Amino acid sequence: MAKNLKKSKKRGFKPTGIKKKGKKKVRGNQKIKGTTGHAVNYITRNQAIKKLQLTLIEFRKLCILKGIYPREPPKAPRGKDKTYYYKKDILYLMHDPIIRKFAERRVWKKKVIKARNKKMPSLVDHLKKHKPKYSLNHIVKERFPTFLDALRDLDDALSMIFLFSYMPASIKINPQRVTNCKKLSIEFSYYVMRSHSLRKVFVSIKGIYYQADIRGQTITWLVPFRFTQKINPKEVDYAVMLSFLEFHEILVGFVNFKLFQSLGLSYPPKYSEISFEMGNDLDSIQEDTITSDTNINQIQQQQQQENKETEKKNKTELEIIKRKQRESKARLSTLSNTLNKIQVSESSTEDSIDEEEEEKEVKQQGESDQQKDGKTEEEEDMFADDEVNKRRKELSVYENLFKNCHFWLSREVPRESLQFIIKSFGGKITWDNCGNEQDETITHQIVDRTVLPKQHNIMTREYIQPQWVYDCVNARWLIPTEQYKPGAQLPPHLSPFVDDHKVGYVPEYRQKLDQLYREIHGIPQPETTTNVLLEESESDEEERFASDLATEQKSSVTQSKKKKLQKLAQRQEEEEQKETAESLIPSKARRLLRRIKYNRQMKQDELDKLEDKRNKLKSGEAKVVDKSTIVYTTKQHNSEDDESD
Questions:
Q1: Which of 110, 193, 243, 445 could staple 61 via S-S, CB 3.0–4.6 A?
Q2: What's the predicted TM-score (pTM) here?
């Protein structure tokens, strides 16, 4: 057998089923798959993990910290079931020093496991004390080079920190992390309260939404309700949330430091243990001003730079407004000139105008134009002053809305949110541990009960439900308290984040509030209502002279019919022109136009449904049950049955 095999090898015998591996041969201009096009710019997750020499958990954490997310290539080079990343992002991650710390931690874990298996507790304790640590300060500076960039992306960070400040400590959630989140949330809310930068509040099922204006940046965050939360660890991936929280803690710490420094306060602040234990979180912060000259100079320089930036922004806004005013004035001047020319041409056909009079008019117009040019700069300055005064009035409203109000909070009321809102708008608050309920200076008592005991009926104060505070903040004025008394059916809590006039559907309570505000402040009603009243007053006079104008009405009827026919013909022509224009549009643009029309029609249908519900509730064809469900009465169904018969 051995001799036969040797002979077969010599003759060139090749065994079947064996293939030699090697490079593919390229023939001419042949392109190999995965070497050109979009495939070069993308890399799969497994390839990235092998390149960085990390585990899946470490790679996921690193991507969250650095702000790198998976991408969707136009054509998946290695299948649609895989996740892809930009190759440039993975090369950017290779140079981060955290990768080395991850490797050190892997070695440290192996040492701890080895010491436990050998039953060496002293060595285990020593290794736990000397655990390798890493800092994320350089990542925060890389992702947010300026302070305004950090404020723009602060929404998710604040909502995450407020969520974990109310979370119960467990095996997966360290109690130190919960306390740190609570301190960060108190510090940020203290700055918002001190600077009077709160703007909007909305109570929803998820929690309470807040919106603040800090350095010209609108920041919205969600605060959950304070109650014991029972969370199933199988339903929530704590590893991803904790990796996000690790970055958000450092980001909010940087932001709080900068905000406290702008107020001239030292950071981190000191807390009074007595007020903190009593539940007075915002008053527990002790204000320590910065005393060293170097820090004061740094703060002054930073404030000067920030003031310069704000001045530049205000100048640009004013320049834009001035340009718009100039354009409007130029348009008006051109319109007046054209009208004068038309009038002159019409009069010239009827009567001849002397040349001397024309010259005088031209001279007078030139003199008036010179006077107007001199006044334009003064008028523009006046407009700028008006805008500054408007902003000052708005700020005074935010600072002094509850200035003359002293609130007493009952036990059943959400104290933390009300304390934060009332103090940020200039009000005073007391409750059981911080004051006396029989104090004569108290103007409002917030109660969330249906019936009050006889002892609490004091005539010098008003008893209200908590919704009154939230509605007053959104309306920016003190609403009458008749509908907010304890036991009364509350009006709808309208969202301040929706512009009802732009949407097209204005709720009934919004219309009532606008009307009350106009009546109290003496603001005239819009032109639509005045026009209706004028038409009603003129209708009486028309009825008196109806007999004298009978002959003219017959001729007017024929003219009105002609006008209607002309309008219908114009509409038909416009529709035909639109159809021809749509036929000439390419197919992609036509699809976009159809989608736009479809979305508009869907919005209009929703508005029509809301108006129908409102009309049915007013007429009695429908009723509200359990404050949420609408039940239709039998009248509607009977009428529908009669029509069908």
A1: 243
A2: 0.70
